[in-house]
């Protein structure tokens, strides 16, 4: 990139908030340091770490524009400090246990901004990694108002926002402990959706198991999100009820294993079901696979609508699209839907409409 191109290209500010992140911070730092795009302002906001975090950060000093290390009141306070220190055209938040997908990620974002100078925000996909089962799944799509009403939004690890938007709509509200990003992104969507664009590209790798996936934080986040959905979209929703119900179901599942020494798929044999496909590929699908193996139920395939999962394998079992059932329904007796959300009812209805003459379709919840 010559000097003229460099001067006309957007400056991308990347903000990493961290506290005692010595186990993961280096992969985050490396992913920024290896970017091919030169116009990056990298800001580290450390909350006063007491481990080796800052020692590791200092090794990458040449890639860092600003370092702030002082006590804060949480991740959103740290984000706000980063925004106030930023001078870039667009701002991006990269968590200290996540990392950019590859070395050209920021270059591709900058090219999109150059092609569409009128945009105020751009977002893409994330690769979610669940370390216990080794699950990797690309997550992302173009979001609409109905997604927000259900509590879904573009993940901030995939979102780049023009810096002036924080002056226009305010910084992260510290009254929210877990969902201040939902608050800000909702305001951004409602006011700027015509100037927000989605690109079908993976931006970052997001490690599940951080703050947002802890149970207490999830419940707090859901209750805050319920309040914010009412505030921004004037809808009353009950997100936490689904979480509480599912935890009760998981408890019954565990009790069945510990007290009766049998899994929840044992009852399938009473219905002459010996061969199944599992719809979904996240944690509950993996629980079902282990349960089925114990009970002697054969899992022939995983079914997933996510195109990025197709033709991958989970424990040697192929992941296939839904239309696999058209030619293969005779090879299985039932489809077990592993989704935890209430959207499982829509999936079940759709599968029954298409394949109900040939197959039994059940939710994992019906097995408990």
UniProtKB/TrEMBL annotation:
<dbReference type="InterPro" id="IPR001173">
    <property type="entry name" value="Glyco_trans_2-like"/>
</dbReference>
<dbReference type="Pfam" id="PF00535">
    <property type="entry name" value="Glycos_transf_2"/>
</dbReference>
<feature type="domain" description="Glycosyltransferase 2-like">
    <location>
        <begin position="13"/>
        <end position="140"/>
    </location>
</feature>
<dbReference type="GO" id="GO:0016758">
    <property type="term" value="F:hexosyltransferase activity"/>
</dbReference>
<dbReference type="InterPro" id="IPR029044">
    <property type="entry name" value="Nucleotide-diphossugar_trans"/>
</dbReference>
<comment type="similarity">
    <text>Belongs to the glycosyltransferase 2 family.</text>
</comment>
<keyword id="KW-0808">Transferase</keyword>
<protein>
    <submittedName>
        <fullName>Glycosyltransferase</fullName>
    </submittedName>
</protein>
């Amino acid at each position: 990139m010559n000097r003229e191109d460099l001067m006309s290209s957007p400056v991308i500010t990347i903000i990493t908030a961290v506290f005692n992140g010595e186990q993961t911070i280096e992969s985050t730092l490396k992913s920024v340091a290896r970017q091919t795009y030169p116009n990056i302002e990298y800001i580290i906001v450390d909350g006063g770490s007491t481990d080796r975090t800052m020692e590791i950060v200092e090794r990458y000093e040449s890639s860092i524009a600003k370092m702030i290390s002082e006590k804060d009141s949480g991740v959103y306070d740290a984000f706000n400090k980063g925004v106030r220190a930023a001078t870039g055209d667009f701002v991006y938040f990269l968590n200290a246990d996540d990392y950019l997908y590859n070395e050209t990620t920021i270059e591709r974002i900058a090219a999109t901004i150059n092609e569409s100078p009128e945009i105020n925000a751009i977002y893409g996909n994330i690769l979610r990694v669940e370390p216990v089962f080794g699950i990797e799944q690309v997550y992302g799509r173009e979001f609409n108002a109905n997604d927000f009403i259900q509590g879904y939004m573009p993940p901030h690890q995939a979102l780049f926002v023009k810096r002036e938007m924080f002056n226009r709509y305010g910084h992260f509200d510290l009254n929210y402990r877990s969902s201040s990003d939902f608050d800000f992104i909702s305001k951004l969507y409602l006011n700027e959706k015509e100037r927000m664009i989605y690109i079908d590209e993976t931006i970052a790798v997001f490690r599940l198991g951080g703050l947002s996936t802890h149970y207490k934080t999830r419940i707090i986040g859901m209750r805050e999100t319920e309040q914010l959905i009412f505030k921004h979209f004037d809808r009353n929703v009950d997100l936490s009820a689904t979480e509480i119900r599912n935890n009760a179901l998981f408890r019954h599942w565990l009790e069945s294993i510990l007290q009766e020494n049998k899994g929840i798929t044992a009852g399938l044999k009473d219905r002459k079901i010996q061969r199944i496909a599992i719809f979904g590929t996240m944690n509950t699908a993996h629980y079902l696979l282990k349960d089925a193996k114990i009970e002697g139920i054969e899992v022939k395939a995983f079914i997933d609508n996510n195109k990025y999962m197709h033709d991958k394998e989970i424990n040697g079992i192929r992941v296939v699209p839904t239309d696999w059932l058209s030619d293969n329904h005779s090879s299985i007796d039932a489809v077990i839907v592993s989704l935890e959300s209430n959207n499982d009812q829509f999936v079940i209805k759709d599968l029954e409409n298409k394949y109900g003459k040939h197959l039994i379709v059940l939710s994992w919840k019906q097995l408990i």
